[in-house]
Amino acid sequence: MSSYDVIIIGSGPGGYVCAIRCAQLGLKVACVEGRETLGGTCLNVGCIPSKALLHASHMLHEAEHNFATMGLKGKSPSVDWKQMLTYKESTIEQNTKGIEFLFKKNKIDWLKGWGSIQEPGKVKVGDDVHETKNIIIASGSEPASLPGVEVDEKVVVTSTGALELGKVPKKLVVIGAGVIGLELGSVYARLGSEVTVVEFLDVVTPGMDGEIQKTFQRTLKKQGLTFIMGAAVQKTEATKTKAKVHYKLRKDDSEHVLEADAVLVATGRKPFTEGLGLNALGVKMTDRGQIAVNEKWETSVPGILAIGDVIEGPMLAHKAEDEGMAAAEQVAGRHGHVNYGVIPGVIYTHPEVANVGATEESLKAEGRAYKVGKFSFMGNGRAKANFAGDGFVKIIADKDTDRILGAHILGPAAGDLIHEICVAMEFGASAEDLAMTCHAHPTYSEAVREAALACGDGPIHM
Ligand code: FAD
Ligand code: NAI
After folding, report:
1. pTM higher than 0.70 for the full model?
2. Is 364 exposed, middle or buried (0-12, 13-18, 19+ CB in 10 A)?
3. Residue 342 phi, psi dihedral angles, 5° rounding
4. Which pLDDT tens digit goes with each residue over 173-203?
5. What's the 132 CA to ligand 2 centre distance in angstroms?
6. How remote is the CA of residue 123 from the centroid of ligand 2, in Å?
7. How far is the CA of 305 from the centre of ligand 1 (A)?
8. Residue 2 has pLDDT above 90, yes or no
9. Which residues touch 331 (CB under 8 Å, ≥6 apart)?
10. CA 382, 386, 387 angle in degrees (round to 5)?
């Protein structure tokens, strides 16, 4: 039996970052992980593999659509799906091995196997019981199931199966126009699949700025994705190679069927707490199955904390990482802090979508006075040169104080540009502060400055 200051259960972005920070703060740390590799959902079957496929398929799109215009002639590449999956796997391996290296460097013990909490201060892994002063649960999430839809991970798949289909399907039906559905739907559309997205609501990516939602959906339609909106999926029927998706249109209750070679079920994720023994310990849960925590990430049982997808808040890797660092500070006797008002969200399609802070819709609901500065990438020289003029930057600022309240970007490198606004918001900057900051030319970031100018006297290039 070994003894630790902290045992973390789960090695996803929440768990592994927490482990490294704990070690940096001088604590004796172990991290329990049941998978064969470290890195959790994000590195193994989430962020990293999906971005590898998004990158490869975007390269194909560029070769097919824009190379000739730039004077790059020759046979356009064809898809070797097996090789693309090998590239994806090697990207995963480099990242998961990287975490293994960081664990060794920071002297963090990897306890291999599935962990359960016997009592506060005792974690069982296999036949061994390890003692610890603190336990941090970072057990993540798993795909939510849909009544009437049986996942076989071959024909009817979650995101995990969609990252390793046997072949590129001729027809793919995606259930859910959320982040996973649109990212992976884009991948297959670029690789030649006929992609139909069936969405329960009347808008894509619920919760996002309304103007972005509409423009984003239009952009994806232009890229060949078909949308069936306001449709409730009733059930799927699958054979070994094909599937049928039955859905009902909400507006008139009419029933329809789609045929597909593969169906991606992307209707959300739910916290994963199986086998942890939380019931017996009396750990309080929310009514959505999350572990309930206070502002210090402490659960209702002293000595047990929880972070990441398994608690409430956006299911994002960087949110889990921030909580991991903050919880480490807490158990080390410092004060951990996460500013939940400034957590960016990014969809890695092309163009990308990124957002932070308030939407017009949320401010209207609050009755708060605001102003909007917008700038189209059509007015940005770099974007035009790079065939990336679709989209815009929208900054929302307080009507009286000019303080930035939120930003929404659809366009090239949106996922990087948004951080300029995150930093500005962390410092309580006004739109004018951003507008007065010199931005290098020619860069996409000039569009951010122009949107900030648009909150005041107006942009220059529009
Ligand atoms: P996880 O990453 O889920 O890790 C939890 C780990 O705990 C798992 O490895 C699990 O095996 C282990 N575990 C659970 N219980 C036990 C136990 N009892 N004993 C031992 N080990 C246990 N987010 C982004 O921010 N950007 C993206 O681009 C992005 N892309 C995504 C793409 C896809 C397809 C998916 C599915 C998700 C994506 N996400 C993305 C979400 C992101 O993956 C999660 O928000 C993030 O992984 C959550 O981190 P976590 O540490 O809370 O949990
Ligand atoms: P999501 O919550 O983003 O979207 C689910 C969609 O399915 C919603 O639009 C919802 O209205 C729809 N839906 C629900 N039930 C339905 C039904 N019966 N029929 C039709 N549509 C239905 O969930 P998603 O895409 O599964 O992603 C899960 C989580 O993973 C998200 O919380 C997200 O934050 C995270 N993620 C983040 C990424 C990123 O940051 N780039 C990438 C991929 C995932």
Report:
1. yes
2. exposed
3. -125, 60
4. 999 999 999 999 999 999 999 999 999 999 9
5. 36
6. 33
7. 17
8. no
9. 5, 6, 22, 27, 133, 134, 136, 305
10. 120
pLDDT category at 27 given cuts 50, 70, 90 is: very high
- Catalytic residues, by residue number, are 441
pLDDT tens profile 136-148 = 999 999 999 999 9
Which ligand has the minimum distance to the alpha carbon of residue 39?
Answer: 1
How many Cα neighbours within 13 Å face the side chain of 129?
6
Ligand 2 contact via 54 beta carbon (within 6 Å): no
Question: What stretch of H or E contains 85?
Answer: helix 81-105
The CB of 177 under 6 Å from ligand 2? The reply is yes
Q: Give pLDDT tens digits for 268-320.
A: 999 999 999 999 999 999 999 999 999 999 999 999 999 999 999 999 999 99
**Ligand 2 pocket, residue 268 CB under 6 Å:** yes
Q: Which residues of 171-302 form beta strands (DSSP E)?
A: 171-175, 194-198, 226-228, 231-238, 243-249, 255-260, 262-265, 269-271
CA nearest ligand 1 atom 47, residue: 42
Of all protein residues, the one whose alpha carbon is nearest to atom 21 of ligand 1 is 33
- Per the listing, tokens 């997808």 go with 309
Domains of the chain in start order, with CATH, are 3-143+270-338 (3.50.50.60), 156-267 (3.50.50.60), 344-453 (3.30.390.30)
Q: Is 139 in the pocket of ligand 1 (CB under 6 A)?
A: yes
Ligand 2 within 6 A of CB of 33: no
**Section 332-355 average pLDDT:** 98
Query: What's the mean pLDDT when you consider all of the chain?
Result: 97
Q: What is the pLDDT of residues 369-396, one digit of tens each?
A: 999 999 999 999 999 999 999 999 999 9
**φ/ψ of residue 430, rounded to 5:** -95, 165
What's the order of all strands across the beta sheet hosting 352-357?
A: 345-347, 352-357, 404-411, 392-398, 370-376
- Residue 430 per-residue DSSP state: B
The predicted-structure confidence for 401-415, as pLDDT tens digits, reads as follows 999 999 999 999 999
Q: Which two tokens stand for residue 17?
A: 């970052």
Q: Is 273 in the pocket of ligand 1 (CB under 6 A)?
A: no
Residue 128 burial by Cβ neighbours in a 10 Å radius (0-12, 13-18, 19+):
exposed
Report which ligand 2 atom has the smallest distance to the Cα of 204: 9
Measured in Å, residue 84 CA sits from the centre of ligand 2 at 25
Contact call for residues 231 and 264 (beta carbons, < 8 A)? no
Best residue among 21, 31, 47, 118 to mutate for probing ligand 1's pocket (most ligand atoms within 8 Å of CB) is 47
- What DSSP letter does each residue of 269-322 carry, written as one string? EEE--TTS-HHHHT--B-TTSPBP--TTSB-SSTTEEE-GGGSSS---HHHHHH
Which ligand approaches the C-alpha of residue 311 most closely?
1
